[in-house]
Amino acid sequence: MIGTRGVPARYGGFETAVEEIGRRLADAGHEVTVYCRGERHPDRMYLGMRLVHLPAVKKKVAETLSHTALSVTHSAARRITRRGPDAALVFNAANAPLLPVLRAMRIPVATHVDGLEWKRTKWSGSGRRYYLAVERLAVRWSDALIADAVGIRDYYQEKFGAESVFIPYGAPILEGADAGKLAEAGYAPGGFHLVVARFEPENHVHLAVEGYRRSAARKPLVVVGSAPYADEYTTRVRELAGDDPRITFLGGVWDQDLLDSLYAGALTYVHGHSVGGTNPSLLRAMGAGASVLAYDVNFNREVLGEDAGRFFGDPAALAQELEAAEADPGHAADRGEEARKRAAERYVWDDIARDYERLCEDLAERRLTRRTVRPKR
Question: Which part of the chain is the Glycosyltransferase subfamily 4-like N-terminal domain (predicted)?
Fold first, then answer.
């Protein structure tokens, strides 16, 4: 498993997917290697997965690709000694320029293409052109494409005529908030609204803050998250909050028990993500039974359906939803239970791991090749 920060999962959706899928593949008897960067786990094994720590250039435009370059080189070298992998899972289409290294060593590869990265405002000019180009390279050089949302699968089919394997993320199911954890942080169940997001414009943290400020909500807004390389946007968000005493910025919360309790204890969870596929933060909120107010895009409607959430497109609409939740918290709680039920039925890690197992077996047996990604017309 190549192209993420690795495990233990402390950062984002890719890392959580690697941990949840990898541990289950290891439990099923497969040898799983995860390439990692950043904070080093003290052991070479974690939950049955073998960890390989390699460095990366600490710059936005080079961090992922530099680490993946070392990872694919290491994996290819293992192949030379006949200890290499039967299949490789590469996360993020940005790593597509390095796929020929794996192909040269006859390592079949599936690329998880993620969301529509070129739409993210942090990439402009050459960065945007790069992400548009690597989508095409992922189609050209992958034996399989993995799409975590139907919307992503449809995008690759319509733009490139490319087939994808649809495998979403899973949702952890929580039965309730840890009242003690919340109390330590100064909150009570049902006593606050929540935002959890990296501070990037396409995640609409600014819209969440502006919509909340426009509302007559009495319960506080708790904002969890930050972002490397996003000082300008972070400043903008804090300026929008101004001196409103109802808004609290917690920064990154790395205590998973506290974060889970915040999801489960929130009156509403405001989800502004717009350019990804199936978003792990949204699934975690659903699994915690949070009443979701989501930015109105096809990806979020796909995950929530029609009954497990409410949608907004501007600050005024969000303000109305926040006020409605406070006016009728029982209805908001019922919507949260509907979200938890949907998550438990549709987004199950055991099922997802079995889908990845079948995918890897198909790769190893050469039942998937570049011809199955982009059939000849």
Answer: 12-170
The predicted model gives 5-13 an average pLDDT of 84
Q: Please give the average per-residue pLDDT across 285-299, as a whole number.
A: 96
Helix (H) or strand (E) holding 320: helix 315-327
Instruction: Determine which helix (DSSP H) or strand (DSSP E) holds 259, and give its type and residue range.
Output: helix 256-265
Q: How far apart are CA 373 and CA 258, in angstroms?
A: 42
Q: Residue 220: is the preceding peptide bond cis (ω within 30°)?
A: no
Which pairing describes strands 45-46 and 33-36: parallel, antiparallel, or unpaired? Answer: unpaired
Residue 247 pairs in a beta bridge with 221
Question: Which of 239, 225, 329, 232 has its CA nearest to residue 271?
Answer: 225
pLDDT band of 81, cuts 50, 70, 90: confident
pLDDT, one tens digit per residue, over 186-240 is 999 999 999 999 898 999 999 999 999 999 999 999 999 987 767 889 999 999 9
How many angstroms separate the CA atoms of 327 and 332, rounded? 9
Q: Quote the CATH superfamily of domain 13-170+349-369.
A: Glycogen Phosphorylase B; (3.40.50.2000)
Q: How far apart are CA 165 and CA 345, in angstroms?
A: 20
Has residue 375 got a pLDDT over 70? no
Distance CA 372, CA 158 (A): 16
Range(s) within the chain of domains with CATH label 3.40.50.2000: 13-170+349-369, 179-346
pTM score, two decimals? 0.89
Could you say which of 3.30.457.10, 3.40.30.10, 3.40.50.2000, 3.30.70.100 is the CATH number of the domain covering 179-346? 3.40.50.2000
Tokens linked to 351: 């099922």
Cβ contacts of residue 165 below 8 Å, gap of 6+?
A: 110, 144, 145, 146, 147, 355, 359
Mean pLDDT of the chain: 92
Residue 320: CB partners within 8 Å, gap ≥ 6?
215
**17-26 average pLDDT score:** 97
